[in-house]
Amino acid sequence: MTSSYTVNNGLEKPEAGDQEGAWGGTLNTNFDIIDRVLSGVGSVSLSGTTHTLTTTDGTLTDGMYRVLVFTGALGANNTVTISPNDQDKLYFIVNNTTDSGSSGPYSVIIKQGTGATVTVENGRADIVYADGAGSGAAVVSLGTEIGQRAFDLYTYTATAGQTTFTGSDTASKTLAYSAGNLFVTLNGVTLENGTDYTATNGTSVVLTDAATVSDELNIYAFNAFSVANVTTASADFSIGDDLSFTSDGAVINMGADSDVTITHVADTGIKLNSTLHLEKSDATVYDATASDGQVTVGPTIYLDNPANANNTVGGQIVFGMRSTEEQARIGATGGSSPALVFGTADVERMRIDSNGIVSMPLQPAWCARGSGTLAMSGTSSDVVVANSVEITDIGGNYNTSTYRFTAPIDGTYFVTMKFVSTTSGGATGPAQKLYKNGSNVREVSINYNDSNYNTSEGSIVVELDAGDYIEQRITNYNNTTFNIDKSRCMFSGHLIG
After folding, report:
1. Tens digits of per-residue pLDDT, 163-195?
2. Ranges of each domain in the chain
3. 247 vs 362: CA distance, rounded Å
4. Could you tell me if 414 and 461 are in contact, meaning their C-beta atoms sit under 8 angstroms apart?
5. What CA–CA distance (Å, rounded) separates 381 from 139?
6. What's the pLDDT score for residue 452?
7. CA dist 58 to 12, 86, 112, 169, Å?
8. pLDDT digits (tens, 9 = 90+) for 395-409
9. Are 400 and 393 in contact (CB under 8 A)?
10. What pLDDT score does 69 carry?
11. pLDDT of residue 172
């Protein structure tokens, strides 16, 4: 008579009356198969790019192990095919393979038919089931369905009298676990936590009774739940605690067509896509009647510096592509009287203090005077006053050799000029004029007083383009000879805006 076999694990079922006097061997084999199916841990060495994991009826084979630890040196990903394709299977998979060259490590891909497969990355573990659907059979990751990965397996071979297992295991993986989220087996027998072993510090397991040489200790460290590959959440999704993205370059996509993204930049921060805008949650754009007297114009962004314990340094916004390029910055000082600071090229350009006072420390400004005496005789043409002594020159735009101020940028400038005649100037005496690029702009003041040491002063607002130069000139409207005290002359001004 012919025996039959169980569908999924190939246990032999002799026909009635069959194997008389010989059924003991069949029964023992069946017991071995059951033991392997329930808690057997098998080491399967892989090579090349394919491997067949077979379950043979009535014979102890690798496909019957509950836990499969794949080893071997790989030079590429290896696809393991479960055979036959009509058996339901549940496996705990551990990828402990090594790299045969320098391009790995490599993954183990579990398949059964032409359906879905499961990829177990090197150094990772997973729980998979095969649906046994024939040629179209599929493999599904329970680890993916439950969390990012189910557990990590650490395997140690004991030395004589060893009680503490820690550090690198036989696959050079360093033991790490969460207390309470593990179970331990010794030679396939499950140990009881707190009785047979102690595991509290996350890095070592200590046996109550010492192991003997060559005993195999397996530690299954289950990982805390984490969401992985959640493709759809049709309603609101709430998380009561921390949410971690564990890969560099992780992206949060928002919108039906992912038109807004936030991307993690390793060791730097986050990057917002160029179309990202901050929107206020209601339609109010301007509220001039706020009870606290503040004007509401939109959403608020807070920038602080948590590393600065005394709060003397605030946050800043930097406009620029890289830290090595020219940048524009808007920042705030800390302390009890914070100020808003604007800068470019890492230099402060403008400050608004807590009292609303605006200062621009690098705003172009100058002031110069001369030395000695300027003698005017007869009806003199316009003479440049040699203001060679620099009093102030913010920006370095005044030249003490040419006696000219050259505008560094386009703008409107306020200019003041003064001269003092030390001798009588007559009824129509000397006058001073502002020249721009060698041409007279306007007479600024004139001395009609015929007394000595009379001061003549005037101011003018003038528009200059970058590169335009201006200078102070004095002219004589009569034939009287007189002197100008250049040390009392002054040529000054500043950029208004």
Report:
1. 999 999 988 889 999 888 898 999 988 899 999
2. 4-146, 151-222, 313-359, 365-495
3. 45
4. yes
5. 101
6. 66
7. 5, 16, 21, 34
8. 999 999 999 999 999
9. no
10. 94
11. 84
Mean pLDDT over each residue of the chain, to the nearest integer:
81
**Which pLDDT tens digit goes with each residue over 481-494?**
778 888 889 999 99
pTM for the whole structure: 0.43
Closest CA to 34 of 54, 6, 53, 14: 6
* 364: preceding bond cis by omega (within 30 degrees): no
For residue 45, the number of C-alpha atoms closer than 13 Å in the C-beta half-sphere is 2
Pairing of strands 78-83, 108-111: parallel
Would you state the structure tokens that stand for residue 495, as one six-digit string?
């950029």
> Which two structure tokens, joined as six digits, stand for 344?
């470019």
Residue 240 scores a pLDDT above 70: no
HEC readout, the chain: CCCEECCCCCCEECCCCCCCCCHHHHHHHHHHHHHHHHHCEEEEECCCCEEEEECCCCCCCHHHCCEEEEECEECCCEEEEEECCCCCEEEEEEECCEECCCCCCCCEEEECCCCCCEEECCCCEEEEEECCCHHHCCEEEHHHHHCCCCEEEEEEECCCCCCEEECECCCCCECCCCCCCEEEEECCEEECECCCEECCCCCEEEECCCCCCCCEEEEEEECCCCCCCCCCCCCCCCCCCCCCCCCCCCEEEECCCCCEEEEEECCCEEEECCCCCCCCCCCCCCECCCCCCCCECCCCCCCCCCCCCCCCEEEEEEECCCCCCCCEEEEEECCCCCCEEEEECCEEEEEECCCCCEECCCCCEEEEECCCEEEECCCCCCEECCCCEEEEEECCCEECCCCEEECCCCEEEEEEEEEEECCCCCCCCEEEEEEECCEEEEEEEECCCCCCCEEEEEEEEEEECCCCEEEEEEEECCCCCEEEEHHHCEEEEEECC
pLDDT range class, residue 278, cuts 50, 70, 90: very low
Count of beta carbons in the 10 Å neighbourhood of residue 321: 8
> Would you say the C-alpha torsion 160, 166, 168, 171 has a positive or negative sign?
positive
Q: How many Cβ atoms sit within 10 Å of the Cβ of residue 136? A: 12
Q: Can you tell me the distance from the alpha carbon of 446 to that of 451, in angstroms, rounded to the nearest whole number?
A: 14
- Residue 8: exposure state from Cβ atoms within 10 A (0-12, 13-18, ≥19): middle
Least confident stretch, 139-148, 295-304, 312-321, 342-351: 295-304
Give the contacts of 219 (CB within 8 A, at least 6 positions apart). Answer: 153, 154, 155, 156, 165, 169, 175, 177, 182, 184, 205
Q: Does residue 229 have a pLDDT over 60?
A: no
* pLDDT value, residue 273: 66
Instruction: Please name the residue that has the structure tokens 């992780």.
Output: 250
Among left, alpha and beta (phi > 0; psi -120 to 50; other), residue 358 is beta
| Fold annotation for 365-495 | Jelly Rolls (2.60.120)
